[in-house]
Amino acid sequence: MKHFNAAALVVAFVMAAVAGAADAAERVPIEAFAISDALSSPRLSPDGKHIAVSADMSDGHHAIVVYQVDGMQQTSLLRLPRYQMPMEVHWADDERLLVATGRKIGAREKPVPTGDIIASDYDGKNQRFIFGWDVIRAGIDRGWGVIEQMPRVRNGHFFMRHITPNSNRTMLYDMDTIRSQRLVGDIGARDMDFVLDPSGTPRFAWGWTDFNTFAVHETKDGGKTWMPATANQLDGQFVPYAFSADGKQVYATWSHGGGPSSLVRADPSGANLTTLASDEFGSVGEVEWNTAGEPFAATLFHGRPQMVYFDETALESREHKALSSKFPGLYLTYVNHTSDGNATLLYAYSDRDPGAWYLYDRAKRTVAKLMASRSRIDPARMGERRYVRFPASDGLALDGYLTLPAGVQDPRNMPMVLLPHGGPHMPGDTWAFDNDAQFLASRGYIVLQVNFRGGEGRGYNFKSAGYRQWGTRVQDDLVDGVRWAVAQGYADPQRICSFGGSFGAYSALMVTVRAPGLFRCAVGQSGLYDLESLAEDSDAATSRLGPSYISRVIGDDQAVWRANSPLHLADKIKVPVFLAHGEIDKRTPYKQAVAMKKALERAGNAPQWLSVPGEGHGFYKDENNVEFYTRLEAFLAAHIGAGAAP
Predict the structure, then answer these.
(1) DSSP bridge pairs for 414
(2) In this structure, is the dihedral angle defined by the CA atoms of residues 309, 311, 316 and 319, taken in order, positive or negative?
(3) Do residues 249 and 294 make contact, with C-beta atoms less than 8 angstroms apart?
(4) Where residue 412 sits, what CATH number does that domain have?
(5) What is the distance between the alpha carbons of residues 415 and 301, in angstroms, rounded to a whole number?
(6) How far is Cα 313 from Cα 91, in angstroms, rounded to an integer?
(7) pTM higher than the cut 0.70
């Protein structure tokens, strides 16, 4: 088990930068990308004395590491069971930590909340299982718990949303981290999110009754009775998520006609609506909060992140701009503040830098670096992620990112790798550091990532445009991106390969079918190769909403499934293929990869093959990631590298 030491990480980070300058001519070691030492989601305690950090300890193990801010000495390490990870970490008060856990069977799999909530003193004492399926509290039915909201003044309590199986109710409890509980909201609808005012009184509940029907409810009697919200009468989708400090106004996202979501402020009825931040191309992203618990800015994520201040002259806006000026080339966000507002935890990152955390002392006007996320990555040796936009062949505007090898400013006729994202109906690629893209760029390739239709972040219309289009229009978007890069002179048309994981692996093979002759090779890791298998025996198919989701996004026609599955199109895949898969993958079962391998062999195109015991949807173990990247590097070099024959 690894022992995390923040000070050592910082020293290693700095030394790596020095070594990088001296060895610029040498390739960045594979281990820099393959070995995990990622720290994430730190939270500063209300009194500013401690910081709790989520730590990926490799091989499927995660922990919460607590440091004393003064000197960054490790206070405790709270280990979680294997494959469990912290989905949320909060300080309930100065002494007590609250953790909502999730489960992640594979490295490429989106974590799924387990519904378990645990609490512990920061030094590891007085650990208590607050709620979960296996351990319940008297007076609350068996089910799953979700940390719905933390009080603005941390008092040892939190609000827990309670979800029960086979029930059309959602309940909200005021809980503490020891023993007390109080029902504060109960609505006759399943899986609703509650929005509370500053006094802790529920005012709204919202959610999807299915994949088509969105509903917002409001209450006038503190959560006892609910009715359709007045804001439903607005011409657009109004989603409340926070109240102003005086409880008189609500902050919400609002989208019109299925387009991107704007950030708005309005009366609870939806009247007097004011747009605070918007972008015609994409939805508004994360919100920045000031020390008083009010939002003061929001981020636009399409391209290099852009901070939109609601009031440029406000003190918090001017302070944030002044702080940002101290981090040239990086994007600065607030993580959280101490209860007295005297200290703030900052996070700064870029396309080249995985990110680091800093402590801002307002009284002293000082900023001190605490720790880096990935100690083996030297930002000076990483490449630029350049934002691009281009039209799809049917005229729809698309965007994406072109990652360049370090030092390349004007890419001309270079070997290129198309790197489709997973999902597909999930947030797409952003400007932030991307491990796969930077690895490939470090090997001399330009890397194209396309935010194809079906992804989130541009509104319902863009997302739904990818429904039942997995093997057709979605793939055409990717092909259109490649052809655009060739037309711009960036990519050598004779040296293009496709590589992806999960749905990205599906796309990596499907694009070679949609555009014969455009690609020279294809790589799939933990891939989806058979839509029929997805619909019938994946973990998605057996989940509560899985069957309706699958019907919605890929349809119900078995003949269509087969016509859009790489497994049944193996005779049309004419390029060399490399397949890698974990043998205990539940999202895309291992038998899919075996069947794909055999289908390619029958077609006379035996793939390179990497079968990994004990791994799921992507690889956890460092040695397996090293082997995969080593094999990937050699495969690409053989087919589109500098010395590869066209």
Answers:
(1) 491
(2) positive
(3) no
(4) 3.40.50.1820
(5) 28
(6) 32
(7) yes
The answer to whether residue 501 is domain-embedded is: yes
Q: Is residue 434 part of a domain?
A: yes
CA pair distance 201, 636, nearest whole angstrom: 58
Residue 118 covered by a domain: no
Over residues 233-254, the mean pLDDT reads 91
Please identify which residue in the block is written with the tokens 């994430």: 40
How far, in Å, CA of 452 to CA of 389, rounded?
11
297 and 307 Cβ atoms separated by less than 8 Å: yes
pLDDT in tens, 74-125: 999 998 887 788 889 999 999 999 999 887 666 676 677 888 899 999 998 9
Output 472 or 554, whichever has higher pLDDT: 472
**Cα 588 to chain center, whole Å?**
19
Instruction: Count the residues in the chain.
Output: 646
DSSP string, 598-638: HHHHHTT-PPEEEEETT-BSB--SHHHHHHHHHHHHHHHHH
Chain-centroid distance of CA 240 in Å reads 22
Structure confidence at residue 18 (pLDDT): 32
CA-atom Rg of the chain in angstroms? 25
Q: What is the sign, positive or negative, of the torsion defined by CA atoms of 113, 117, 123, 127?
A: negative
Give the H or E element holding residue 234: none
What is d(CA 374, CA 13) in angstroms, rounded to the nearest whole number? 8
Note whether residue 345 is domain-resident.
no
H or E stretch covering 474: helix 473-487
* Residue 217 three-state SS: strand
Number of helices (H) and strands (E) in the chain: give both, helices first: 12, 35
Using an 8 Å Cβ cutoff, are 283 and 275 in contact? no
Q: For residues 263 and 275, is the Cβ–Cβ distance under 8 A?
A: yes
What's the number of domains the chain is made of? 1
Choose the weakest-confidence range: 68-82, 132-146, 596-610: 132-146
Residues 6+ positions from 179 with CB-CB distance below 8 Å: none
How many angstroms from the chain centroid is the CA of residue 622?
21
Structural domain span for residue 534: 383-640
Lowest mean pLDDT among 28-37, 131-140, 158-167, 593-602: 131-140
| Amino acid, single-letter form, for residue 398 | L
Q: Which residue has the tokens 């918090």?
A: 316
Query: 608-612 and 577-582: which strand pairing?
Result: parallel
If we measure between CA atoms, which residue out of 212, 301, 305, 213 comes closest to residue 260? 301
Closest C-alpha to 119, from 175, 192, 178 = 178
Q: Strand order in 181-187's β-sheet?
A: 144-149, 157-163, 170-176, 181-187
Cis peptide, bond prior to residue 424, ω within 30 of zero: yes
Q: Confirm if 117 and 99 have CB atoms less than 8 A apart.
A: yes
Residue 398: phi and psi, rounded to 5, are -120, 160
- Residue 58 CA to residue 36 CA, distance in Å, equals 6
